[in-house]
Amino acid sequence: MDSFIIEGGSKICGSVKISGSKNSSLPILFSTVLTDERCVINNVPELMDIKTTYELLSYCGKTCFFGFNSFSVDEKNKIITEAPYDLVRKMRASVLIAGPMLARFKHVKFSMPGGCAIGVRPIDIHLDGFKKFGADVKLDAGYVILSAKKLKPAVISLKFPSVGATENIMMLASLVEGKSVIKNAAKEPEISDLACVLNKMGARVSGAGSNEIVVEGSEKLKGFEHNVIPDRIEAGTFLILTALCGGRLELLNVESRHIETLLKKLEKTGAILEVYDNRIVISSGKKILPSDIKTEPYPGYPTDLQAQWTSYMSVADGKSMVVENIFENRFMHVAELIRMGADIEIKHNTVIINGVKNLKGATVMASDLRAGAGLILAGARAQGITKVRRVYHIDRGYEKIELKLLAAGVKIKRIVDE
Ligand code: UD1
Questions:
Q1: Which of 2, 118, 119, 348 is the most buried (most CB within 10 A)?
Q2: Residue 115 in this model has a pLDDT that exceeds 70
């Protein structure tokens, strides 16, 4: 198992190119199941989750190639409509294969994703949606089996704007002839990116980015070529890193309008920003002013940047509050930050942070992807050496993270633990 060793205290400098979005790439890769034609997806980050998707699509019979951030998918073999436990266990987003499979083959069997480090994470919203299209849902020995003789268009109101459920239902609806409507849909930029792909495939999707999406499905969909949008969470992580450690950083290949809420928050803490459409330059302020956040569905503050903000506020000049509204149990990084000298108290879904002068290096453990990112940031700022264990969580979602951090002035190296 790999760990990162970080020597804290360096100022941030230089320029970092932001990778393609992981959360956009995943549904787009699964949308290739909707067609038997060739699909080419560019700007796909090289990550563990992408490798898992490659394995799952290949297991199902698709022919995949991936290199230089370009992913191509062909269909030369018979498709197996099953997602086994071993692959779903590695990545919860594997559930995104269900909508496309059900739409095209009227059958899919996939392992229940189960719980994970950031809460129970059920899939009831996905399943309720599929039922509305006429699918029959059975549970059998840890597997979900969806089947239908014929699928019919549907009008669905989601009880919560789940990102994954919106994506799964959009993909399904694209291959069901007629007009379907998703109300209370998620509005994340990744939804709009997927809608763009589905339109290239021949469906007519409108309203993506608003809370009501209309999908006019087609009987057959075609292949496509697409460039994935930049990763707003990676961009946000590097912006917070700079504000936290001090210095100046230029971000390239960023979509600034996707992180407006974060940019406003950073300005409130004293950071200085030069914002262009696809480029941002951030300089740290004289001191870090405290500022509260609460995580919300887009365009609110993203839950995937909550851990990084908690690290940031742990050295702010005063008291702040972080409220987590999206996931239960997403404060696993807090105990580790406390071990590094942070003064933080957890009350249900809220943490209260009393800023300290500085953190001290320690051995800490990444419990999930974004918690891991938060700990790297803390280590980069802390006095002394920090060892972040269980780096495999971080490798799921950040492309070449240590190389990018090195380029930004962070003293970091990867080691293999015995
Ligand atoms: C996606 C992102 C993840 C991000 C999250 C919230 C991907 C691959 N992952 O995850 O990085 O943190 O959005 O922005 O894009 N819920 C239910 N029932 C369901 C589905 C969800 O109760 O059927 C709940 C979840 O437990 C959670 C909340 O809804 O509390 C949000 O989940 P959702 O928006 O579905 O997140 P994901 O799509 O899994």
A1: 118
A2: no
Taken in order of first residue, the domains within the chain and their CATH numbers are: 2-19+230-416 (3.65.10.10), 22-227 (3.65.10.10)
Which protein residue has the closest C-alpha to ligand 1 atom 33? 162
Note the pLDDT tens digit of each residue in 188-222: 999 999 999 999 999 999 999 999 999 999 999 99
Q: Which atom of ligand 1 is nearest to the CA of 121?
A: 26
**Mind giving me the DSSP string for 363-388?**
EEE--SHHHHHHHHHHHHHSBSEEEE
Tokens of 380: 């980069």
Mean pLDDT of 402-406: 97
Q: Is 116 a residue of the active site?
A: yes
Q: pTM for the whole thing?
A: 0.97
| pLDDT tens per residue, range 294-341 | 999 999 999 999 999 999 999 999 999 999 999 988 899 999 999 999
| 398 CB within 6 A, ligand 1 | no
pLDDT, tens digit (0-9, with 9 covering 90-100), for 252-298: 999 999 999 999 999 999 999 999 999 999 999 999 999 999 999 99
Give residues with Cβ within 8 angstroms of 394, minimum separation 6. 4, 366, 369, 372, 373, 376, 388, 401
381 token code pair: 């700022």
User: How does DSSP assign 37-82, residue by residue?
Assistant: S-EEEES----HHHHHHHHHHHHTTEEEEEETTEEEEEE-SPPP-E
Closest C-alpha to 375, from 328, 324, 308, 321: 308
Atom of ligand 1 nearest to the CA of 164: 38
By most ligand atoms within 8 Å of CB, the mutation choice from 21, 92, 121 for ligand 1 is 121
Structure tokens at 217: 């499905």
Q: At what angle do helices 163-174 and 22-31 cross, to 10 degrees?
A: 30
